[in-house]
Each structure stands twice: as C-alpha cells, then as structure tokens.
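Q&A log
Question type: sequence-to-structure
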Amino acid sequence: MPLAAFLHEAVREFPIINTHSHHREPEFFKDMRLRRLLKFSYVSWVASDFESDCDAPLNESWFEQIRFNSYFISLQKGLQSLYGISEPLSVSSWDRYDRAINEAHQDAGWHLKVLREACQYRSIIQDSYWDPGSASADPIFMPTFRINMFFYFYNMFASDHNGNNALRKYNIAEPFPALSDYLSFLYHALKERKNSCAALKCALAYDRDLAFSDEHSSDAEQCYSRLIQGNSKADDISRVQNYVFFRICEMAGELELPFQCHVGLGKLDRTRAIHLLEAIEANNSTKFVLFHGSYPYLQDIFALCHNFRNVYADLCWLPIISPAAAGRFVDEYIEVGAANTMTWGCDTWTSEESFGALLTAREVLCNVIANKIQSGYFSEADGIQFLRSVFFDNAKALYRLDV
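Response status: OK
Response body:
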C-alpha cells in the first residue's frame, strides 16, 4: 500500500475536533435539496448567481464554469462518498443526487449523523454569525463569540457586514456617554462568555482593513466624542475601532480566550496577517489563532509563527480554497512552526460540505506527511502523531475542551 494511502487509512480512525464551522440551525436542513445545498456552499461564491427556491437542475453552462473549481470538487467528493454515487455531479446525474440528499434529510437527525459518524467529530466550534455567541443545542457544538458587532456602537444604525450592532444586540437605547464607559460594558460582555464560549472570533476583514495601530486613550476619547455628537472627522471611526481592537486583544488574554482572526481573503485592502504584527507584539499573553493560512499571503503566517509563541495557525477553509496552496502551507509550516500550533476546521454551513472539506484536508495532509517521511525528514510514527495533533490534540489543548 502506498504510504499516503496508509496514512489516509490511519487518519480515518482519528477523532476530530472541528475548530471552525458555520453549521446552520436544525430547521435549515428540513427538506434539503441539491440546489439549496449548492446555494449555501462556497460553490455559489464563484459560480454565477442562481435561485435556490426551485429544484430544477442547473444547466450545462453552469457546470462548465464550475466543474474544475476546488470548492466544487471537494463538495462533489463528499456527496459521492456519503450517498454512494460514483458518477460525477452533472446535469445528467442531477436527479440522482437530488433524490439521495432529499431522502436522507427526511431523517431530521441526518445532518448530525454525518458530523458524528462520517466525519467523526467529537467537538465543533461554531461561529453563528447570525446570532453571535450562540450555538446549536446539540452538545457537540461549542460557540465562539464573534466580536465584529462591538466595533459598531457609536450610533444605532452602524452595522457589521452581518447586520449586527452592539447597542441593538444588548437593547441599549443610545450610545455610551464616554468611550471608557463602553469599554467597561464590553469587558463584562466578554467576561460573561468566558465559560460558555471556546474563543473570541474576529471577522473584520470583511468590514475594514486589519491595519490596526493603537491609539492614545485621550485621542480615542476625542474621536468617540465627535462621533456621538455628529461632528466627526473622516478617520474617527477607524481610530476608535483601532483602539477597541487593542483593548479586545488585551481582554482576550486576561480572560484566557483564544482570539480567532480571519486573515487574508475579505476586502483585500490590508487584510493580510502581517498587519496584526503590532497587536501580536503588544499582547504576548493572548493566543492569536490566524485563519485560512492568510491566503493568498501564506508567508505572513510563517513569519509570525516563527517569531511569536502566541500565534497559532488554523487551516480552516484553506484546503478547499486550493489544495495545492494548502499542501505548500503545511509542508513549509512543519519546518518553521511549532508542531502543537496547527489546527483544522471545515468553515462550512452544511454537513455535506463539511465532510467534503474534511476529505480534502485529510488528502492534503497525508500527501505532505508521506513526502516528509519518504524524504527522511521524520519517521512514520512522527508523521502519524503530527496528523493526530492537527486534527485533535492541538485543538483540545488550545481551547481546553473536555472531549
């Protein structure tokens, strides 16, 4: 048996901690159909828009534009494995896939069976951006607390990209009179989540740049004062947000909550990981978990993890963005990072796409490890332990999970 295949068989037996998921509510999966499944997958991010409120097959031209994309390939592999279909997904096989998906989801618990039995997940850290800090009722889920809304608090109408606003979320009728008052409120809001959430999550790369630079408290107060009085300057919002970001970094360290940060893709205007350098340097007690390999800026993660012991690399999303890039990332990270600082999450909305993402991640990592073993970089036993660490041990320790 080829070494990569042997490793793949070994890793299939591992329990998995999925460090990042947007798994939807149980009612979302009722009467699931193929078209809806595609709409709520990454495939829809790169294919032309289509409606999900009908069940008709997508046409040949749609499949022609998408069939070589990694998002599609990954999801297709997951569907083929779950539903026992060897034929690729196409117009001609549409009905077979659609029927299999719909029949499986007649069992209201199917989406959880896939996660537990097919994926072998023991715990899933769930980012419910539609209701920050919440998680599905099933005990397999543990929430992370998305903090974007806490940067939109200077009036009742400002919102993050998911439509969230801190004042509205907490039923606060008007802005706080001073920024210091708001920070006191913010600290207590985060502290309340210490025992119920596994981490804090920052997805501000979809809202603004990540070029955070700390502000003096008096300057930040003046900026905030102008904002709530309606006579703000052009950069007041960004400067107040910069100040709040640094305070959240400090709070995350004090509360011992890992700080998950989306870096790389997003608005693309200074959203690469290296822009967090100042915050990472200033908060050495905070565990910064940098997502997605900072794709396409992979080198940023290598540099930060090389220089700072409080930086962790989460592979979530990266293998299905590009298996080739993920392979390069893992190969080089092994050489420059610490073995206990890499984790993986699916970063998907549905069980089917999560399973496909897991299959792709396993394939990427097993191929890299096989090459490392064959080159003599480390032993077979070391390779298997590294795989187990990425998929389970590192996340269990980082998030202090009782699984």
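Response note: Residues 31-104 form one domain.
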